[in-house]
Amino acid sequence: MTYAVPKLLSFEEFIAEYGKNTRYELIDGELRDMDPTGPHEAVAGSIAGRIFVEIFCAQLNWLVPKNCLIKLLHADATALRPDVVVLDKAELNQEPLWQKEPVICNGSTIKLIAEVVSSNWQDDYARKVEEYAFLNIPEYWIVDFRGLGGLQFIGNPKQPTFTVCQLVNGMYQQQQYRLGDKISSHLFPKLQLRLDEIMPA
């Protein structure tokens, strides 16, 4: 029995073929289906809405784009598509691709990323923790509303988990929250949020 080796894509090929298709991202040349479902999108939308309210109330010069790719400068064939990303408007003029494509290349432009965990949970809990820390992104939220992550990440028994990763000396310190817990964010100190409130119906 023979197996076909999947074709590896460059960043440019990915942008040309899949740049506007929010279902996919690119990791080391491999096309990754982000497996979005209605509940997944509902949770991502709820998080984006809560963040927007915090930005508005605090009068921060930040924005939450509808769609955004992150190009890792140290990885030519990787384009990550966060479920929610918060950008610093003041840094956008330093972005080489932003005027033509919704692509961010500089970690300094990104204030926060939130990933809603789906079937490819390994990327959210392992790969992206390293990548986002390398980019010096101050906060990274992992929203595992279905409790899909491995036992080493969310414990036993598995249950819905909201993990806040805060960058300290180049590495993320992680704090986990369960249903009923008040979530704490260094970036948004007045945030009033519990995992229960963003769970899909």
UniProtKB/TrEMBL annotation:
<feature type="domain" description="Putative restriction endonuclease">
    <location>
        <begin position="12"/>
        <end position="195"/>
    </location>
</feature>
<dbReference type="InterPro" id="IPR012296">
    <property type="entry name" value="Nuclease_put_TT1808"/>
</dbReference>
<dbReference type="InterPro" id="IPR011335">
    <property type="entry name" value="Restrct_endonuc-II-like"/>
</dbReference>
<keyword id="KW-0255">Endonuclease</keyword>
<keyword id="KW-0540">Nuclease</keyword>
<dbReference type="GO" id="GO:0004519">
    <property type="term" value="F:endonuclease activity"/>
</dbReference>
<dbReference type="Pfam" id="PF05685">
    <property type="entry name" value="Uma2"/>
</dbReference>
<keyword id="KW-0378">Hydrolase</keyword>
<dbReference type="InterPro" id="IPR008538">
    <property type="entry name" value="Uma2"/>
</dbReference>
<protein>
    <submittedName>
        <fullName>Uma2 family endonuclease</fullName>
    </submittedName>
</protein>
